[in-house]
Every structure is written in C-alpha cells, then in structure tokens.
Design brief:
With 319 residues, the chain is an alpha+beta fold. It folds into two domains: 231 residues; 67 residues. The protein contains eight helices and eight strands, in the order βαααααβααββββββα. The strands form two sheets. It has a five-stranded antiparallel sheet, sandwiched between helices. Strands 2-3-4 form a three-stranded antiparallel sheet, with helices on one face. Helix 2 packs parallel to helix 5. It starts with a strand and ends in a 15-residue tail after the last helix.
Length: 319
C-alpha cells in the first residue's frame, strides 16, 4: 500500500461553527475562500498536503494565538476534523461539491459581491490544488477543468471590476441578465471543480500512471485583490472515464472508521483505496478482478490490521 496524509476525522461541526470560530480568532480568510482552498488541496496530487499548513495559511502564514489547550482542540476539531472531513466526502461521485447558493438581489452592489466571491472561490480552489508549486503534473481531464476554471475566474473577476466602476451605467434589465449569467457560470464552475476532483482521485488510485500533462499556474495582477489565473499545457493522451463501484462505502470495524473507495482501472480490474480518519490514503498495489473482491480485502484488512488505519489515534484504545 502507498499513503499520502492530510489528517481529518469525524465531527458534527457545521458551517455556522466554522464561521463563529473564524470570527472569534480573527481569521482574515473568509469561509468561502477557506472552503475551496481546502477542497483544492484535497483534490491535489501533491503528497505534502497538510491541513494544518493550510490553517496557518488562512491566518497569513502563522497559526493564531490560542488562549488555552481547549481552544487549540476546538480549532482542530472544527477546521481539520470538521470542515476538511466534510469536504473530503465530495470525492465521491454520489456527493458532488456545489458552491453555496443564496438569494441575490438584482442590485449593482449585490451582483458585484457575488461575482467577487465566485472569483475568490475559484482562485482558492486552484491555490489549494497547486499549493506552493508553480507547475504540476495533472491528468488531462483535471487540466481541462483547471483551464475552464481559469476562464471562469477571469469572467467573474471582470464582472466584479465593471460593477465596481460607478461611472459605467447599470440598467436594471442588464443587471437581471447578468445575474442569470453569473448563476449559469456558477453551475459550470461546479461541474469543472467536480471534474478535477474525480480526475485527480482516479490518478492517485492508479499510482499516478496517467499523469502526463504539465500545468503551470501563474497569478498575474489584474488590478484587483484576486489576481488572474493562466494555464499552460503540453499534450496528453485521453483519459478513460471514471467508474466508481456502488460498493464504495463508509465502514466502521473494531472502532475504526474509514472510507472504502473502489473504482475501475480502465482495464477491467478494480482499484482499492481506504481513506482513514486522518484522511490518509491507503492504496493497494494489487488490482482486483471484481469490486466485491476489493471490498472483501478491505474488510479483511480492517479486521486483521486495524492499527494500520488509526493514524494519530493509534495510541487510543479500540472500542
């Protein structure tokens, strides 16, 4: 098995809990940006992804000052175990990610705020995907998705820039049409984010064998706080469609909770990945003839080697 490790764990923390924590600890990064920053990192093929490093990044590069150990544990539970864990569930095709929806008034200021928010969200996803890297090997479908997200970012950012210019007229009928366009662009952004998630997930499961596209990420100043996104690519072969087994499921055995992911290898076999409570990915070298065989192997490993999937919790007794 091979592993990559961004920690996580189960919790009932909601977006309301996250907002309250960010406000109390004076986080300069709003929830909508932190959400996509985390999601991009979850999707990323990078092996050095660390939720705690992202938390520090949200506070400008350093962890906030905590008044007590209890406050540290709360932060870890709400952000790392809570928000990160919930976002990790969007790697399943049965639980696609959607950018948050809310009622938007047809006013110039409301549309400006919506367009700016969407631009920030898309930038956050790409920033999370690339981390500190300027170039990255991506599967073709993920590359195509990032290119599309780059174009959408430019359009959202451009709309926000135009709406902020009070010298330009903004008739009510044009604002209404723009709102419809922004809503349609949001739907497309959802599709492309999920396309990148699934493409990178499959590539990780195939031991990075399909990675042959070089993607370059450059953030160029555009006169706004968000910057621009540009992508450069080289040729890549077509990727097979992602096939996830209906046997993929969350499993709790011997007090150990994991997510069992089973998906096709495009050659008639099945890949087994077990994601533990710290979001460590355990991928089997062996490919299985059937998805049922893969599930049986996952259950066997959980029964016979539970400590393998405990991560940081290995020092706690099993239930």
């Amino acid at each position: 098995m091979s592993t990559s490790k961004p920690p996580s764990g189960p919790t009932a923390a909601t977006d309301k809990d996250v907002k309250a924590l960010l406000l109390r600890l004076q986080c300069p990064t709003p929830l909508h940006v932190l959400r996509t920053l985390f999601l991009g990192s979850i999707a990323s093929p990078r092996l050095d992804v660390s939720p705690m490093a992202l938390v520090a990044q949200a506070w400008g590069g350093e962890m906030p000052e905590f008044a007590s150990t209890a406050e540290v544990e709360e932060m870890f539970g709400v952000l790392v175990q809570g928000l990160w864990n919930r976002l990790s569930e969007h790697q399943s095709t049965r639980n696609p990610f959607r950018l948050p929806r809310f009622e938007v008034a047809g006013t110039r200021q409301a549309l400006h705020d919506l367009a700016r928010m969407r631009a920030q969200e898309l930038k956050g996803f790409v920033d999370g995907l690339f981390g500190s890297e300027d170039e990255m090997l991506l599967p073709k479908k993920a590359h195509e998705a990032v290119v599309a997200l780059s174009e959408l970012h430019t359009m959202f950012d451009g709309a926000a820039g135009l709406l902020s210019d009070e010298a330009k007229p903004a008739p009510a009928d044009e604002l209404k049409a723009l709102l419809r366009n922004l809503q349609q662009m949001t739907i497309i952004a959802d599709e492309q984010i999920n396309k990148a998630l699934q493409s990178c997930k499959r590539a990780r499961g195939q031991r990075l064998e399909t990675m042959a596209t070089v993607m370059s990420r450059k953030i160029a100043a555009t006169g706004s706080d968000d910057g621009g996104l540009q992508a450069v690519t080289e040729h890549d072969d077509d990727e097979p469609d992602f096939i996830e087994s209906p046997l993929s499921q969350s499993v709790t055995r011997n007090g150990v909770e994991v997510r069992v992911e089973i998906y096709g290898d495009s050659q008639g076999g099945w890949i087994l990945e077990v994601v533990d409570a710290e979001n460590t990915s355990h991928v089997w070298d062996e490919h299985f003839e059937t998805d049922q065989q893969a599930l049986t192997e996952a259950l066997r490993a959980l029964d016979e080697e539970p400590l393998e999937f405990l991560g940081r919790a290995a020092d706690r007794p099993l239930n």
